[in-house]
Specification:
mainly beta; five-stranded antiparallel sheet; about 450 residues; single chain
Amino acid sequence: MTDSLSSICGRSSGRKLVRAFRPLGLVAVASISMLASGCGGGGGSGTGDTLPGVVLVDFLQAAQDNVPLNRTLEFRFSSAIDPNSVNPDSIQVRSGALFGSQVFGKFIIQGSTVFFEPKLPGLCDLSDGGFQPNIDYRVTLVGSPEEFAIRNLAGEPLQSTINALFHTRLITDPQLFEDQIPSASPTVVGTTPVDGAYPQAPPAISAPVMVQQGNQVVITFSENLNPCTVNENTVLFYQYASGDLVNGFVPNADQTPSTPTSWGSGTATTPARRVRSTFTLSQDQLTTKLTLTPVFGEFPDNALLVVQVTNNVQDLGGNAMVPKTVSFVTENRPVQISKRTFEFTTDFPYNPNLSTGDVNSARSPSKAQGWLLFAGDGDNGANLFLRSGPDTANGPVACVSSGFQLNDANPDDFDPTNDVTLSTGATRNTCKNSTDGSTAVVFEYRTFRIRNGVTVRL
């Protein structure tokens, strides 16, 4: 193992981002000792002559056995380094017993100093991070005579290839990560949509922000976070109200808003309804962002949505978040005619004795699934909530068809403003329908809409 040399080169304040890298091929190199030199030139020989090329003055983490997973590696050279010569071939950071896996991260060039920032984890199991706990890592700095050697601004290469080792901290170490801003509580520094975003232009808001369906919620934080503390139980995303069916949310005195969960218009959603979303935490040394993406691809329509970042979120040093609440309302769009996907969750327990739906089958793994068949003429009859009549001519002799209705020659749009129940009746139907030829009970509609705040039971 090579020895770490004392630092003799200072650091300037600016950094230049070179590139993020991906794993590349392994280069076989020999391990030699590091040479010291002054900041301004090459290394010295035994005769006092100056050797040509670049010298590694110090690698700060060489031979360390307790490196935190977010520690930036620092390499100090004898002269300013050409950024174009720094890449995964010239500086290789590899892990494992055979040092075959390249570490994900990025290089930063600052004069004669090169930094390597490992990718920070966004998952609780740390699997997406650059460094892993309790692992040996080898750093290979490639020099002369290799073509892809590290070079200075004059084109001179690192005098020879150098190897160095270090080891990361145990998973049980309370200081597995370094606190990015020691002893400071993390804060929310920005959100999209912004707090109070509105799809219209009420007098109370001089510069309304359009909140359109399909948007994501993006929260930016002041420092890196412990990914195990970021989830749907610590960052709450709920719908608290729905707007007027025609006018949406109507501006009034308290829609500045002064109370994030109640803007003074619309109908309260009781209890508040979770907006099911996927959580994506992405962070590096400069930014930390959490993205909430609705499971079904878009926000609820005409809804007051509230995001609450609680103090259960923590930074890498265990400091609790300063709580933050952000609320906004979404568009009240006209009737949409498009494909929709519905998913049953544990909010609605499945009872196999009361359902013929597939559960965890090849067609619907881990789901209870129903089918909306878009067929027929869209004419359900005079009563929109009474089942359409079966084709008795195709049914068996004496098939039961009571309780059905005939078409009235008017296509129907399903768009109730109050809770409704679509009942198939108490008597089993034995007549075949004209939609799929089965004995299933059919309701026929030209369009099908379920508004926010309205419950439709089948």
